[in-house]
């Protein structure tokens, strides 16, 4: 069942290129997004002026990527909320808001309650779900299934990648329907989305180097993930994954926020994983990294081939194949998942079933 892999988590990380293709292909016709197979009415997305994404954990982190991409390409405001917060904060939502619930299992109690609240408010609901026939899939007005196949490892990996792939396709569709993207631009973006599967393969080829690097992370007591923009959303996911499976305490920080308090925790030898996949933000990231190396941090940089990262700012540099900034979350999250996996393995943790955690959280 594990196909020769030592753990389901590693197997599922490696399944991502196929999961992506299976999820994207049915929604693309003649090189353009097409939702007819999902039963969405024509021009479904264009009627909305706001989007509210609601989810928990890793699925919520996928929503953070979705927010950035949709706002960038379609220029409509997107809010992302933790389901257990959303349902109790008496959210202000108007009729032209689309509520998107993201859930691998389709059974998460708070996400289901958030969906019910949105329906009570008579809002349009769209669920992005992996498990067919699950409660969220049954109750949402519209469902987009991700085709990741069963995810057995408690830590979610491939589900995140396919969830973001659908949020990208929604962004392209909205961008075109709002008149901000030409058909040709959407074609190019859709081709790049398909190419993200190949970019993930490129990241998987770094596995041995990541395994080596994880050896020096395994002894850490605290660790920081830093990033800006899409890299900040990725930092949140990388940090959750590492905590969850390796029990190393870590924090994700928007790199520019570091000096507003947290830098006091950076001392000699504290590992910092700096995500630098966004070329436009690289100079800012490098100056944040220098602030940490000056205080003795041991820095791991994840960047793209071709970027110059000098030896005096980073102890380890992992370079991913060059790819458009917009699509870097696909290979970058793969690296973060592998870092979590190999750190946990080095520490002898029960990787597929971390302590105190359940695959599907059906209690509030
Ligand atoms: C983390 C993880 C959890 C889930 C969260 C939501 O690796 O698996 O954070 O992402 O419990 O679960 P779903 O997506 O099933 O609603």
From TrEMBL:
Its main location: cytoplasm. Its EC number is 2.6.1.16. The gene is glmS. It comes from the Bacteria. It is found in: Cytoplasm. One of its GO terms (molecular function) is glutamine-fructose-6-phosphate transaminase (isomerizing) activity. Homodimer. Residues 40-180, 213-354 form the SIS domain. This is Glutamine--fructose-6-phosphate aminotransferase [isomerizing]. It comes from Yanshouia hominis. The lineage of its organism: Bacteria, Bacillati, Bacillota, Clostridia, Eubacteriales.
């Amino acid at each position: 069942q594990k196909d020769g892999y030592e753990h389901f988590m590693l197997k599922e990380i490696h399944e991502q290129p196929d999961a992506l293709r299976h999820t994207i292909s049915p929604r693309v016709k003649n090189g353009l997004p097409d939702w007819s197979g999902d039963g969405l009415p024509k021009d479904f997305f264009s009627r909305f002026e706001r989007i509210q994404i609601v989810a928990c954990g890793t699925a919520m982190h996928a929503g953070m990527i979705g927010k950035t991409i949709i706002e960038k390409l379609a220029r409509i405001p997107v809010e992302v909320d933790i389901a257990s917060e959303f349902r109790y904060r008496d959210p202000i939502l108007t009729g032209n808001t689309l509520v998107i619930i993201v859930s691998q299992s389709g059974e998460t109690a708070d996400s289901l309650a958030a969906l019910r609240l949105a329906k009570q408010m008579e809002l349009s609901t769209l669920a992005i779900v992996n498990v067919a026939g699950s409660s969220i899939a049954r109750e949402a007005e519209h469902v987009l299934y991700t085709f990741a196949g069963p995810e057995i490892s408690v830590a979610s990996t491939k589900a995140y990648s396919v969830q973001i792939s659908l949020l990208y396709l929604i962004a392209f569709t909205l961008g075109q329907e709002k008149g901000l993207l030409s058909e040709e631009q959407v074609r190019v973006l859709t081709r790049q989305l398909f190419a993200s599967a190949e970019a993930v393969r490129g990241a998987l080829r770094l596995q041995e180097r990541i395994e080596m690097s994880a050896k020096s992370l395994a002894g850490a007591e605290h660790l920081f993930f830093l990033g800006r923009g899409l890299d900040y959303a990725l930092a949140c996911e990388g940090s959750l994954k590492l905590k969850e499976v390796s029990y190393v305490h870590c924090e994700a920080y928007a790199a520019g926020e570091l000096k507003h308090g947290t830098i006091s925790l950076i001392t000699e030898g504290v590992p910092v994983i700096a995500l630098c996949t966004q070329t436009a933000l690289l100079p800012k990231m490098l100056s944040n990294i220098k602030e940490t190396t000056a205080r003795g941090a041991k820095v791991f940089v994840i960047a793209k081939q071709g970027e110059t990262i000098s030896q005096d700012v980073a102890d380890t540099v992992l370079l991913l194949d060059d790819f458009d900034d917009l699509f870097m979350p696909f290979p970058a999250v793969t690296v973060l998942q592998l870092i979590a996996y190999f750190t946990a393995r080095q520490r002898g943790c029960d990787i597929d079933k971390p302590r105190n955690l359940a695959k599907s959280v059906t209690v509030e």
